[in-house]
UniProtKB/TrEMBL annotation:
This is ATP phosphoribosyltransferase. It catalyses: 1-(5-phospho-beta-D-ribosyl)-ATP + diphosphate = 5-phospho-alpha-D-ribose 1-diphosphate + ATP. Its main location: cytoplasm. The lineage of its organism: Bacteria, Pseudomonadati, Bacteroidota, Chitinophagia, Chitinophagales. Catalyzes the condensation of ATP and 5-phosphoribose 1-diphosphate to form N'-(5'-phosphoribosyl)-ATP (PR-ATP). Has a crucial role in the pathway because the rate of histidine biosynthesis seems to be controlled primarily by regulation of HisG enzymatic activity. It comes from Chitinophaga solisilvae.
Amino acid sequence: MKLKIAIQKSGRLHDDSIKLLKECGIDINNGVNKLKTEASNFPLEVFFLRDDDIPQYIEDGVADIGIVGENVVLEKKKQVNIVEKLGFGKCRLSMAVPKAMEYASVQDLQHTRIATSYPVIVSEFLQRHNITAEIHEISGSVEIAPGIGLADAICDLVSSGSTLFMNGLKEVETVLKSEAVLAACHQLQPEQQQLLDKLQFRIQAVKRAKNTKYILLNAPNEKLNEIIGLLPGMKSPTVLPLAQQGWSSVHSVLNENDFWDIIESLKAAGAQGILVVPIEKMVI
Ligand code: ATP
Ligand code: MG
């Protein structure tokens, strides 16, 4: 019994999808132009597909699970479960208009022509805001549509915004924030569900580790309580005596988000020799 996973054949999500599986300890040999392969050390069969097709394959049960942009899942309206956000492939689906156009609010989209590859998501957005507009569905190079007179506005995926800028456009509304997700079939066999649970357990350990750092520092004993109070730790920090009298070594884990604030407070409280090291996996 194998778990069948669909990932993007080539494109923005391909490398990170393979990398994630690798970080989960799953080796797949990914020959060029291969459409299908198997993992050597996990009961996993991998299909390489166009990202647009992945939700359908999962709905049909041809693939049990898949890695795909949330934007694609929402656009395709297939019956699949999003079981895990994966933290890569981050982007937003945004409305953009020519730089010279005066734009004050979403009302300015009233009676415009909007070019997009995401007609379903865009029409839901327009409905939510009571806007009537004409949607022109095009499959690529959406950003040139206003320049060639095909549309007044566009709705497209953006990460840095430089493509929009280069095409004389400005971003005016965020319609959706997206990232790569793990999507699964509604009806999984118990064996497949067990394999998915096992995979998700590993993915969560990898994700957690990415957001967390291991910290080691030296503290004068009279400042220990204050310093320990600043550290969250998994349970509580580990404190070990140093060879040098009156000093201790303190070990703990930190969330990347509060990282710099905590480091500054630690230094101010008298911590020295602060080392911060990456964590490879974190199982709780
Ligand atoms: P395919 O050949 O598989 O159909 P594609 O051209 O439709 O590929 P890509 O451009 O490779 O798709 O993008 C795949 C996914 O990467 C998008 O659906 C989106 O979730 C994510 N993504 C992240 N950043 C961006 C970006 N700046 N532009 C487009 N997609 C992005
Ligand atoms: Mg595609």
